[in-house]
Amino acid sequence: MSIAERVRQARTKRGLSAKTLSESAKLSNSYVSQLERSLDDGAPPRAGIIENPSLDVLERLAEALAVPVEWLAFGSGDDPFQELPPDTERPQ
């Protein structure tokens, strides 16, 4: 799964619009849209499509989405959307 797919997955699981996410992460709405559009097809990269966001951007997105930055960047670590047994706190 790509960064763009993880961003979209987290955003939709959190029930956020791209606009709300962009405001929370202090990014432009067009930036979030361009990032997510990078997953729309298997075609070669096009102008205006973001493939590798900076660490600063990843950190802002992770915070706004309430997911670990390692998961957002690399897909590593625990799945933040995995169901936990009742009375189990999710690590922050």
Relative helix content? 40-55%
- Which architecture would the CATH scheme give at its second level? Orthogonal Bundle
Cα radius of gyration in angstroms: 13 Å
Q: What is the CATH T-level topology?
A: 434 Repressor (Amino-terminal Domain)
Report on the structure:
It is a single chain. It contains 5 helices and no strands. With 92 residues, it is an all-alpha fold. Helix 2 crosses helix 3.
Would you summarize the structure shown here?
Residues 88-92 have low confidence and may be disordered. The protein has helices at 3-13, 18-24, 29-37, 55-65, 69-74. By secondary structure, it is mainly α.
Mind sketching the topology for me?
Layout: H1 3-13, H2 18-24, H3 29-37, H4 55-65, H5 69-74
Helix pairs in contact: 2-3
Any key phrases for this structure?
globular, single chain, 0% strand, 434 Repressor (Amino-terminal Domain), mainly alpha, 92 residues
